[in-house]
Structures are given as structure tokens and as C-alpha cells.
Amino acid sequence: MNTFSLRIVASDKIFFDGKCQLLVIPAIDGEKAIMSHHEDSVIAVTMGEARFQTEDGTITKVLVGKGFVQMINNRAVLLVDSAERPEDIDVQRAERAKERAEEQMRQKSSIQEYYHSKASLARAMSRLKETSRHHH
Length: 136
What we know:
Family: Belongs to the ATPase epsilon chain family.
InterPro entries: ATP_F1_dsu/esu_C_sf, ATP_synth_F1_dsu/esu, ATP_synth_F1_dsu/esu_N, ATP_synth_F1_esu_C, ATPsynth_dsu/esu_N
GO molecular function, one term: ATP binding
Largest sheet: 9 strands, mixed
Domain ATP synthase F1 complex delta/epsilon subunit N-terminal: 4-83
Helix content: 25-40%
Radius of gyration: 28 Å
CATH class of the largest domain: Mainly Beta
CATH superfamily of the largest domain: F0F1 ATP synthase delta/epsilon subunit, N-terminal
Structural class: alpha+beta
Number of strands: 9
Distance between the termini: 102 Å
Protein name: ATP synthase epsilon chain
Shape: rod-shaped
């Protein structure tokens, strides 16, 4: 069985480092399959699903961000800005986090507006006091 070494490196972690039989990556012009003894090359990777098959035949799916794969001397390195197992990405959790962040932004701006208008009001009140003092 022909294998090659594969390292999947994301900006925050090494996702995989070991031997595999096959790597399929999302390239700009469609999926590309890389097998052992693939010609030396560098291929741009776009966001999407990559999969690789390890020595024992297990297929692992990984959602990758942008990056590239480099194949040199039967060693592949997949460098991407992110690599996650699909089951690790809980879509609803991500949605909730997004909503929370948006709500915090709204609250923050309304608090700033409140203090801003409170300060404007205080300035206006002190001006009124000043003018009323001068007119008596």
C-alpha cells in the first residue's frame, strides 16, 4: 500500500500529522486528489471540506479555511488558516454567539448614547442656570 506523510497545520494547531493514502482538497477549480508519489507541487486551497484516508482506511473529513498544500518528496503539508472537524462546528452554537455579540454591540452603543445625552443635558442645564443668574 502506498502512503505518504501528511501534516495538516492550521494557524492555531496541528490538526493531523501522520501517514495517509489519499488527500482530497477543495481547490479553486474543484476538488483535487493527492496520492502517494504525486508530482511535487503547490496547490491553492479554498474554504471547504478536505478529506484524507489514513493507513488503516479511515476517512477523516476536515473543514478548512484558505491556504495551500505543498507536496515535495512524497510529503504533503496542508497549511490553512483554520481546520475543524465538521462535528466540532455546532452551527447553532455559532449562531447564538453571533447574536450575543450583536446584542452586546447594540447595548454598548445605547449606553454610550445614554451617557452622551446625559452629558449634553447636564451642559444645557448648567448653561440655563448661568443665564438665569445673569438675568435677575
